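Lecture 7 notes: from sequence to structure.

We start with a single chain of 161 residues. Read the sequence below before looking at the structure.
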Amino acid sequence: MPGLYYEEFAVGETIDHAKRRTISEADNQRFCDMTMNQQPLHLDADFAAETQFGERLVNGLYTMSLAVGLSIPETTDGTIVANLSYDEVEHPNPVFHGDTIRARSTVTDKRETSDGERGVVTMRVEAFKIVDGDDDVLVCEFERTVLSEKRPADDGRNGDD
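Now the structure, written as tokens:
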């Protein structure tokens, strides 16, 4: 399913995204390598064993990026002009290798651009690690603001054939 056009977003709507991803050690290592983040808490098992966490943590920016990626199919796939901002980022709980992440987006605001040709949509994105037998644990949350295309007049999704 392609993403939503500006008109299709409804303030207050919550979307539980269908895709999930289990984070591997290799995922975390590659992300750290690509971003040149050599923080030992992410990469050095002996170092991490001596911290309050007892093991390596997944890079928080990877967790945030994954949450965005998991949300794209049902929000902005093919309908986005640009990501405008990521605000109020929080990481309330750690993520470890082997954790499975799911995401949820709630539309919190929308408005047309001043020229009326596009729209600005803000969503609260939450990422959870799936924990067997318990409620899912919130691991990352943030506001994502996007510049969205309006639905083309000749698009079959508007009911005018």
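The helical segments are 25-35, 40-43, 45-49, 60-75. Keep this in mind for problem set 3.
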